[in-house]
Amino acid sequence: MKGSNLFYIAVTATVLLSCSVVSHGGSRGAAADPAVRAAKYYPTPERATFLYTEGLKNSLMHGDPRRSAALFGEVLKLDSLHAPTYYELANLFAQTPQQAIPYSRNALRLDSANTWYLTQLGQLYLGTKAYDSALRVYNKLLKLAPGNPDNYVRLAALYEQQGQPFSAISVLDTAETRFGIIEGVSGYKRQLLINVKL
Q1: How far apart are CA 73 and CA 89, in angstroms?
Q2: What is the pTM of this model?
Q3: CA 20 to 30 Å from 105, out of 14, 49, 81, 193?
Q4: Which of 61, 114, 111 is nearest to 81 (CA)?
């Protein structure tokens, strides 16, 4: 199956999944939500932005994930290519990383240079123990966001987990060259050097 076909299948599945989250929310559906009714008074191009903002506000101020998921589902009905909505849906489902990964992948597919999306996907891969995928993500993160020491530590840990301690040491050497001595990085590097008897 071609990559573009997989993308459209993933988008369709994501929209259906987000709608299924909504359908379990009780007797009142997304259409009965006051924000959805209010959105109808906005010009068409601005409806998705209004609903996205309402979903964010609801998530931050009221902590109601079902309502936020319903509002984000409405955004995707209006604009299936709205990357921030996929990112926020992945955040909503982060406690179950396997469910969050498709949303995170969609966000990154739509905005491949966004380091927040890439970081989120890397963390979700770690949460599901998909270490090969996480390794690719963190290697890419070092190129896109070389100023974050945490990315070096995570990448080194992934190399160590894959049985490549010398690659891990090399990553930590690069971090020390870039940032100077950081105790967490240096302590980890010392431990790796001891492990390989250097």
Answers
A1: 9
A2: 0.77
A3: 49
A4: 111
